[in-house]
Specification:
Strand content: 5-15%
Largest sheet: 8 strands, mixed
Mean pLDDT: 91
Low-confidence stretches: 1-12, 351-355, 644-653
Helix content: 25-40%
Number of helices: 26
Shape: elongated
Strand order of the largest sheet: 5-2-1-7-10-11-15-16
Structural class: alpha/beta
Number of strands: 26
Length: 653
Amino acid sequence: MPVPHAHQPPLTDAPPPPRYVLIGAGAIGVSLAAELERSGHHAVLVARGAQLAAARSRGITYARPDGTRTLGVPVHGGPDELELREGDVLVLATKTQDAAAALETWARQPVVLADGTRTTAGERLALVTTQNGLETERIALRHFATVIGGVLATPAGYVEPGVVVAAGSPFVGIAWLGAYPDRALPLAEDLARTLRDANYAATAVRDISAWKLGKLVASSTFVLDALFPPGALRDAAAELLRQETLGVLRGVGEVSDLGAALERTGAAATPVAVPGHAYGGTSTWQSLARSSSLETDYLNGEVVLQARLQGIDAPANAALGAALRDAVDRGLEPRSLGDDELRRIFPALSGTSAGRDPAATAPRDAVLVGAGALARELEGPDPPALLDVRWALGDPYGREHHAEAHLPTAVYVDLDTELAAPASPELGRHPLPSIATLQASARAWGLRQGRPVVVYDDTAGTSAARAWWLLRWAGVADVRILDGGLGAWKAAGGELEHGPGGPSEPGDVVLSAGHLPTLDIDEVPGVAAGGVLLDARAGERYRGETEPIDPRAGHIPGAVSAPTAENVDADGRFRPDAELAAHYAAVGARDGIPVGVYCGSGVTAAHDVAALATLGITASLFPGSWSAWSSDPARPAAIGAHATTQTEAVHAG
């Protein structure tokens, strides 16, 4: 039997290693091709236009912080120059606006199988996407049976034909890969391992859609980088955009926090100096610098689309998209606009330089405002909107009380109809309103995007806290409760107005759900067992001695009594921090453990949430509260003054 020559590879039935076909020779495509080549993987690059001409005339220069080299992978001008074979992996590295044409073309290309038969790329080969936004994967599924969605964060730049600068360090880039639609797929794990070989911090995930949404939150700010130089006002605009985008996308699905994920792993691809080359900026900055087509319709435009599908608006994203189109029409250079233009595009920033920054204030000052401080703010250049939320069980005359006397410019808010949805046994007496309904109400109150809000009542903040919590939950960052309410304002000599009142103009605020934590009814026992669950009702209702309104007496097993009345002094003002801290420490509520709060119907529980917030403690609200819990006969009810465990509870019904 002949013996193989020593240099011949052993005979094997194992398939050859995959070849990666990078379709698109911009910053992403070239970086991937260069790093796959460097790590010993087989890659080919497909280029067009000036980049193809440069590759054929002098090669493509690939610059990294540790040196510059000429790309050694084969470069082709299109599918007609390349024979696809079984095992190839297609990586689409074009911009989103070019994806549809490329996908249709490549999906029809023939693929030669091992037995010599032919099929098409769309039927046989896996496609990996690298685009920002949400559109490419949806298009790809029309043409390819196997789609791997990719989320890439790569500080790489392509401005000059034939030159790509990849400035990321220590990793070239960060990547999340997963099957689309979401599911487990071994190929995604294989691709992640390959990219880790190629100096990417790559992770395979089963929920790539959540990561795509998370990247879109970051990508929504790319136009700011393209149009404006760095600065404090640009940072404020970026935060406004991120919050609006996050609120809209939470209505689409779960949104992964890319920054938090990177903090957990320690992975980083930080732009650093590349000798002899400048990195520049984001992909939108690069496109504007090259005068090439822009992907903004699939970034900010996607946010606008998703908002409209939900029946809401995304004005910041819409305004920014329009500003970029105008800049292109005017032939503006990158980063040539200033702060005045930022304020024109985002009216909410008009008072930023002199306004309050709720994120930078002490916890108590971010929740409460005194009567004297409020009077000064009302006389200032950026006065807060005032909401009169007078309401109490058994007193349906809040609107009449408002007409008799109210703080100047205050608008009346009806808790039953505007801060709650219709009651039901399943959801309780004051369910949360839909975000679309709440936004319509808030605009009718005159709330404007970025404008501070102060809420008040005449019952020690117990109903105003509902408005405070609901607006904060809906994404209004700067909402405070008038400490001591109407009584404190009168005691300070504050002026009062009479008559029904109303806003001077309709508002434009954009709301989105989920900015404060909530508990659903099935999550409540877990908080009682693993943290602390506070019952904000009066002690006699907690103990089950009386129940004037809900189906059963008692409390949720494991809950601890923490009546809202104990949060305030005899004048209805919140007690000093030291007293509140001692009070909540006594019932076991502290930072670092799960804290939940409920009451009768989810109204006064917000007062406990607010009191805890003044101490820097975050608590989750159970909106249905006892009215929902006690309406379900399968839920146990505890009686007495102690925090009965689940197993000790008495089941009723």
